[in-house]
Amino acid sequence: MSSDSDYLAFLQKQNKTDKELAQKRQENVAQDESQASEVEDEVEVEHSKNPELVKQIRTDLLDATEDLLYISEADYPFTFFFIPSSKISEKRLSTTKLPSVEEFSQLIKLDAPVAETQTSFGAFFDALEDSSKFSNLKKVFDQYFQSSDLAIYRLGQIEISVWLTGLIEDVGLIGVSTLSVES
Description:
Nuia, 7 strands, elongated
């Protein structure tokens, strides 16, 4: 009997160690991506048509997503993004309406073959309504955007990038993104 309990204890310890290593890897990847993104975003924000508004939305989104993880087979944090209207115009896309899923994947330079879907904001948050942190995030989007200027883009197959996106006409696309692992 003691060998069974020893073996079980060993398995539990190993499982805990594996989970801790996976979590540290996810945190390191997210931190690296976040730092690179922050530098790029700062430059973009400063050159936007309304930098003060973009900065305020960024602050509110970062506050709402602090310590917030998107739960899937792996838990990932949210990161802020901003695509200025000048970059949207370069792709010859409209700066006054949300891009299609295909156009959005071009904007974020996603070259890999993907399964693309666009989900309504309401449907996305309905599934998460139990969490007060997610309701705070929804409130930030509701505060700054009309419902017709909101979209959720899901790009990928197993490791799916999820983009909660709002459009400010002639300023750009603003939001947060995360990953969802769904095998």
